[in-house]
């Protein structure tokens, strides 16, 4: 890939499932695209993909076809709503959730041959701390962790942060609180997580935003349309756009040159050396 402009590569993750992580990734991605950014969303939940389901898309090809050599990344990419481009994973194919590290690297290496200019690559990982999730997260420049006001969400978020920091040296995490009553509630939830991490870990947590519980968000999911497009004046849509603005304002890491080359190089190296 010959692109030289800096690229933001952000993992969107969660300690547990059911916290609205994919909805967050989609709506922030669409909001960034609405700001004129060229955004690609990689569905990295290999085997239980749901970005295409959430958006009502019917992709003919997916990452399994890249792995088999039948298609390139450019050929499987689909145009989503609001200018968001999506790299679909395969849903319900167990083989895709059991890739070895070399196979994971083969998929990521395909990004090196991508012929499209992009500004932001968002990586929607699976929930939890499985080996494949860890490899994707540590290859990204930024980590966005989605939490909700549930004991299991906070406990699993702490376990995620502890693992990534202790074993892989990830120091900074952007936190988004989802399904909260309001911003005050979201900030209080963030503070609750900070109290634990400040006591036991040497990490920096950054409050990126709070998305309120919103009936319009539920309706948008039923319509298979991002809430920022379906109900642009809703509270959740406004919160997503504000979060996208803050995301866009974050400094872009230039580690290893930054961008996709950095992402590809790290992903291949971690996949070749991982033991889990």
TrEMBL record:
Classification via Gene3D superfamilies: P-loop containing nucleotide triphosphate hydrolases (3.40.50.300)
Record flagged with keyword Nucleotide-binding: yes
GO molecular function, one term: ATP binding
Protein's UniProt keywords contain ATP-binding: yes
Keywords: ATP-binding, Cell projection, Cilium, Flagellum, Nucleotide-binding
A Pfam family: ParA
A GO CC term assigned to this protein in UniProt: cytoplasmic side of plasma membrane
InterPro entries xref list: FlhG, MinD_FleN, P-loop_NTPase, ParA/MinD_ATPase, YlxH/NBP35
UniProt GO BP: negative regulation of cell division
Protein name (record): Flagellar biosynthesis protein FlhG
Organism in which the protein naturally occurs: Methylomagnum ishizawai
